[in-house]
Amino acid sequence: MAMTLRLPDDLDQTLEKIAAEQHVSKAALILQGAELIAERHARRRELGGGLEFVLSHDAELLKRLEDA
């Protein structure tokens, strides 16, 4: 899917430098960043689900530990 992305000049210059250092295109660099954001979001959702599971299934144990 094609997309137009408008970047502030300072960010565009920074990404250009990083892309040159890594020997990749700026588009590839931005794609890597988008993938990292998607992975981070998925990880946070998994952790949140795990936390909710523990809080709901181990509420009594957590209460006893709190009182100890």
Summarize this, please?
This is Putative transcriptional regulator. By secondary structure, the protein is an all-alpha fold.
List its traits.
mainly alpha, 3 helices, 68 residues
Provide structural commentary.
This protein has helices at residues 9-22, 26-57, 59-67. It has a domain at 38-67. It is elongated and about 55 Å long. The chain has 3 helices and no strands. This is Putative transcriptional regulator.
- Count of distinct strands: 0
Mean pLDDT over the full residue set: 91
- Give unreliable regions as ranges: none
- Major β-sheet annotation: none
> What's the shape?
elongated
Tally the helices. Answer: 3
Strand content: under 5%
Given the helix and strand composition, which structural class is it? mainly alpha
How far the N terminus sits from the C terminus, by CA atoms, comes to 56 Å
InterPro entries: Ribbon_hlx_hlx
Organism: Psychromicrobium silvestre
Protein name: Putative transcriptional regulator
